[in-house]
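Translate sequence into C-alpha cells.
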Amino acid sequence: MTSTLQEAGALLPKMSALDKAQLLQWVISDLTNVFPGIEKTPGVCGGDACIAKTRIPVWSLVNSRRLGMDDAEILYNFPTLNHEDLKNAWNYYRANEEEIDAQIHLI
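Result follows.
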C-alpha cells in the first residue's frame, strides 16, 4: 500500500458522512469522467462544459470566483443556478483544470 493511500485511509475516520460522500463523488468522476449536472453539447457555447440545461459555461463560474466572487454572489448573479450547480461546476473544474484554464485564457 502506498503512503498516499495509507494517509487517505487514516483520514477517513475523521471525515463526516458529507465529506465522505463528496470524496466518493470525486473518485467516481475521476474514474469515469462523468460529471453529474455538467454537459457538453455541440453548438451550445462552443461545446464548452456547461451547467446542465443552461448556457452557463463552467469557465464563466470559475472566472467569477477568480475575480473574487463567493458562491452567494455568483448565485445572485446567476439566479437560475443553485448550490448543487456550483458544486458540480467546482467538481468538474477540479478534474479538468487545464481545459477550463485554457478557455478562460481565451477570453
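Note: The mean pLDDT is 92.
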